[in-house]
Write a structure and sequence with these properties.
Blueprint lengths: L1 E17 L2 E14 L7 E6 L13 H13 L8 H11 L5 H15 L19 E2 L2 E3 L4 H13 L4 E5 L5 H14 L6 E5 L9 H9 L3 E5 L7 H10 L3 E4 L9 H11 L3 E4 L1 H4 L2 H13 L3 E4 L6 H11 L24 E4 L2 E4 L8 H4 L1
Helix pairs in contact: 2-3, 8-10
Length: 362
């Protein structure tokens, strides 16, 4: 095995507001694996920890990836089966390095499948090329800018809109929702909101009551993670369906995953492979959720098109019936050019377009 990595800084097209501050750029690390030099056939994966959120948001990521590449180079890893690859990762990469696990999984599965950016068998990037319905994301910011984003998403064909709230005055956010419902009912536009833990125990109930007036589909993480009793009460009593997001981060063992789902019993869980430990970990969450009749959708977490491609292929291995959160490919000035395209609220893999990986191949 010949493996290398490189750092790549993605530059946002706008100031991306989150509850944890404003993002101007995002660092990712690309892992490249091959079995020959020079690498005419290679697999590529992306490790993209989120600052202030990922378990592996660490200053020593480059040293960690150096050690991982050395382990790969000295291994006798077989690429015969997905199970062998996942077993090697489970044995050799710490469970608290979720983005590293995801990047290595993606790179090795890509190489196993011929180095053509085909990570998993699916109906999205391979014939018959079924598109994936996705939500349109409205970022936090001043009300006028959020309204501008909203209008653009609806005009471009999205029928499910996700709005990040908690950054501006709550009254202004309610005015934004009122604007949507004045022009579109719940049968025309589905509204999801994401609070990123912005509400408190004192204000969460009245705020969710106000949100319910607008036929909101669900709210992601209304309060900060770790408040299981409060979240369970919200799941039971509140008129808006509760979705867990940050609550899942760091729940790496089967016991921990089972515990959080059984204690809170949410309506939905939001699955971000980069934050949860990759493909195998995401599949385990889905299995546990479905056994409990808990809904789910998969979301990208500000990866480049390399990571987004792998997440979309994972998503397409399931029969999804609600929009997924895969609309982040248009965020950056310098994203990796790829066959990924968005049209009328759906994510497509356009076989007529090619990957441009000069950055990785340099």
């Amino acid at each position: 095995m010949i493996s290398t990595f490189q750092k790549y800084t993605l530059n946002f097209k706008f100031l991306a507001g989150t509850s944890r501050g404003v993002l101007k750029y995002k660092d990712s690390f690309f892992i490249k694996v091959s079995q020959a030099y020079p690498a005419k056939v290679y697999g590529i994966g992306e490790c993209a920890p989120l600052q202030g959120l990922s378990q592996d948001d660490r200053n020593d990521m480059e040293q960690i990836l150096s050690r991982v590449c050395q382990l790969l180079n000295n291994s006798d890893l077989s690429l015969e089966s997905e199970d062998e690859i996942l077993h090697w990762i489970d044995k050799n990469i710490a469970i608290n390095l979720p983005s590293v696990r995801f990047g290595v999984e993606t790179a090795l599965l890509d190489l196993k499948n011929g180095g053509t950016r085909q990570v998993l068998p699916n109906s999205w990037s391979q014939a018959p090329f079924q598109p994936i319905e996705i939500n349109g994301l409205v970022w936090m910011g001043e009300k006028d800018w959020m309204l501008e984003q909203l209008k653009a998403k609806v005009a471009s064909g999205f029928t499910c809109i996700k709005i990040k709230i908690g950054a501006i005055d709550f009254k202004k956010e309610m005015e934004l929702l009122a604007y949507i419902r004045k022009h579109y009912d719940a049968n025309q536009i589905t509204i999801r909101v994401d609070a990123n833990g912005a509400f408190t125990e004192d204000d969460v109930y009245p705020k969710l009551q106000r949100l319910s007036v607008f036929d909101v589909h669900s709210i992601e993480q209304p309060v900060k993670p770790g408040q299981h009793d409060l979240m369970r009460q919200l799941s039971i009593q509140c008129p808006v369906a509760i979705a867990l997001d940050e609550e899942l981060i760091g729940k790496n063992s089967l016991e921990d995953k089972t515990d959080v789902l059984d204690k809170i019993n949410p309506a939905y869980i939001i699955l971000k492979p980069t934050l949860l430990g990759g493909i195998a970990a995401t599949k385990e969450w889905i299995n546990l959720a479905e056994k409990r009749n808990i809904g789910w959708w998969i979301t990208s977490a500000l990866e480049s098109n390399i990571g987004l491609n792998a997440i979309a292929q994972l998503c397409a291995t399931y029969h999804t019936i609600i929009p997924q959160g895969l609309g982040t490919g248009q965020l950056y000035h310098n994203n990796i050019q790829s066959p990924l395209r968005i049209n009328q609220g759906h994510l497509y893999y356009d076989q007529n377009e090619a990957w441009d990986l000069k950055v990785v191949e340099a």
